[in-house]
Amino acid sequence: MIKLYGFKISNYQAMIKAFLLEKGVAFEELEIRPSKEESFLAMSPMGKVPFIELKEGFLSESTAILGFLENCTADEPMVPADPFRAAQMAQVVNVLELYIGTEAARLNGYVFFGGEFNQSAADDIEPMMVKGLAALNRLGSFSPFVMGDDITIADFFAYYILVNTRLIAKKVWRWDILADVDGLAEWMTMMSQRPFIKLVDDERAVAISKM
Predict the structure, then answer these.
(1) CB 110 within 8 A of CB 116
(2) What is the predicted pLDDT for the residue at 210?
(3) Where are the alpha helices (DSSP H) in 73-107?
(4) Among candidates 174, 200, 173, which has minimal Cα distance to 19?
(5) Mapping DSSP to helix (H, G, I), strand (E, B) and coil, where does residue 44 land?
(6) Quick count: other Cβ atoms within 10 Å of Cβ 200?
(7) Does 74 score more than 80 pLDDT?
(8) Distance between CA atoms of residues 191 and 19, nearest Å
(9) How far is CA 53 from the centre of its chain?
(10) 88 CA to centre of own chain
(11) The domain at 83-209 falls in which architecture?
(12) Domain 2-72 is in which class?
């Protein structure tokens, strides 16, 4: 059985968990916090969560984990069969991660954990996010899913990136980022109503309330 390591407040943990549930993959969830200890780095080389444990070893980085899980579950594929469409999906995931999620996450400490506000960082982050959202608007279909008719890995990645990013944007810039992408608000509502996503979101909300 796959072991999923992390902690429930993490949006990336929620992403992997929701995907596992949607795919019907049996797993055990184990709580662990990030660490730079050598024993931890042997499992997750960047000292991050989530990561998974398999009989073959450990695997970290969410895109790698999602790709592995997709390759192991042939039923109800969540990557387009056409190679070009699959590459386009990967392009959307990269835009979400590099130019929206990773940028916004630089302000996680301030928004979610009461850290000091860094105006210089905020000034750098905002224009990059504007570009990232403009790219998402060009690349995404959201009719009804990110890539069109069928749900894909991009939907799980986008949902859990944007769950956090929209809160950051609202607090730091009073910016409703969902309004910048055609169909994004409606898509977020639709995704939030999927039973497994709702289950994971409810568990995450409880974990956050206990912090």
Answers:
(1) yes
(2) 85
(3) 83-95, 102-105
(4) 200
(5) coil
(6) 23
(7) no
(8) 12
(9) 19
(10) 18
(11) Up-down Bundle (1.20)
(12) alpha beta
